[in-house]
Amino acid sequence: MALLDLSPHFSRFRAVAGRIHLAAHSHHYWPDVTREAQLLAWDDACRHADGKWGVIFGEVIPAVQKGIAAILGLPDPGTIAFAPNTHDFIRRLLSALPADRPPRILTTDGEFHSFARQAARLEEEGLAVVERVAHEPLATLPERLREAAARGGHDLVFVSQVLFNAGGTTGDIAALAASVPDPATLICIDGYHGFMALPTDLGAVADRVFYMSGGYKYAMAGENVCFIHCPDGYAPRPRDTGWYAAFGALTAKQEGVPYGPQGSRFWGATFDPVGFYRQRAVFDWMTRIGLTVPAIHHHALALQERFLEGVRARAIPAVLGARLVTPMQGAGRGHFLTFETPDAASMYGRLAAAHIITDVRGDRIRFGFGCHQTAEDVDAALGAVEAALA
């Protein structure tokens, strides 16, 4: 499979002079079509005023639901709900757990802050019992995670598809789901570093697993367009609920607190719709040019290999001396490389001073790759990295 050259489609982001962007995992570039989509959102608001919501819920959101369902192999786009951020979904999942005792949660020690912080805070108050599987060694994590899940007794299993601070995966989603013995246990996959990065087919577990992600990273649509796939029959009435969760039930007599069907039960309340215009434009653009997630994934992994080969060829000591955390073989990896070193913050600062964008998490520095980059971009970045870290 040949490497991509999509640079003409990212002309506006790429036109910013002097910036070398190695942080697709942090803020992916948006294709040019998203600017037109953002203007269309303004024009629709002007044209329709209050009536814009008919366009948004009648045209824009269904198109985004269909796009997500197609990428994930979901049989029914109606199981997808939206929110401005994934923490909204975390709160709703937690609010669906048993209230008569501290619920037991199985997770890893490598989850992103939105879940890790919330779980730790509940744990402080004795409101949850949290079991954390160590994310390293990454090579054995999928097996160790399945073994922990198989012991049972959990109300919620919550793990990332790709670990944000390491780049490794938690393994096959269907295998993890199959290891959970209690059919009432909620299973949620945080796909924020997996959606539109790793080829993912949820068809076999669509009736069992929650899956959430958003547009900020590899979906190339920016903020405020996060989603969750909600399998029917699980968490039917979350206690954290907004009035949009009654969509589909608003015309019925309002007795108690009704919930709409399918994914609508996980909706919140009024939101900024502009991101949905951008996401729809991304999906339409991909269809128009024949761009697929497998092609993007192949491209990003090839750029990673090119970067590592360049680091070795140039003998860049600051990078060579760091531990490469991200597994290059085995259960798979995401679209960024994580290096562990006590000099991570210093490296990040020197790179930033040279307008080379990476990011740092404690003693780990991350270099990310995406479809907006070309092989030539990586070669040029290597020279700049070498000079900045000399």
Bin the strand percentage: 5-15%
Q: CATH homologous superfamily of the largest domain - what is it?
A: Type I PLP-dependent aspartate aminotransferase-like (Major domain)
Kindly state the number of beta strands.
Answer: 13
Largest sheet report:
7 strands, mixed
What is the overall silhouette? globular
The stretches of 5 or more residues where confidence is low (pLDDT under 50) are: none
Order of helices and strands: HEHHEHEHEHEHEEEHHHEEHEEEH
Strand neighbour order, sheet with most strands? 2-8-7-6-5-3-4
CA distance, first residue to last residue: 35 Å
The number of helical elements comes to 12
Detail the topology: elements first, then pairings.
Blueprint lengths: L10 H4 L5 E2 L11 H16 L3 H21 L7 E4 L2 H10 L8 E5 L4 H12 L4 E5 L7 H10 L5 E5 L12 H7 L6 E5 L19 E5 L11 E4 L44 H16 L3 H22 L2 H4 L2 E2 L11 E5 L3 H10 L2 E2 L1 E3 L2 E5 L6 H14 L2
Helix pairs in contact: 2-8, 3-8, 6-7, 9-12
Written account of the structure:
The strands form 3 sheets. The protein has a 7-stranded mixed beta sheet, sandwiched between helices. Strands 9-10-13-12 form a 4-stranded antiparallel beta sheet. The radius of gyration is 21 Å and the shape is globular. 44% of the residues are buried. The chain is built from 12 helices and 13 strands. The longest helix has 22 residues, at 293-314. The protein has 2 domains: 7-30 and 292-388, Aspartate Aminotransferase, domain 1 (Alpha-Beta Complex), CATH 3.90.1150.10; 35-286, Type I PLP-dependent aspartate aminotransferase-like (Major domain) (Aspartate Aminotransferase, domain 2), CATH 3.40.640.10. The protein has helices at 11-14, 33-48, 52-72, 86-95, 113-124, 141-150, 173-179, 274-289, 293-314, 317-320, 344-353, 375-388; strands at residues 20-21, 80-83, 104-108, 129-133, 156-160, 186-190, 210-214, 226-229, 323-324, 336-340, 356-357, 359-361, 364-368.
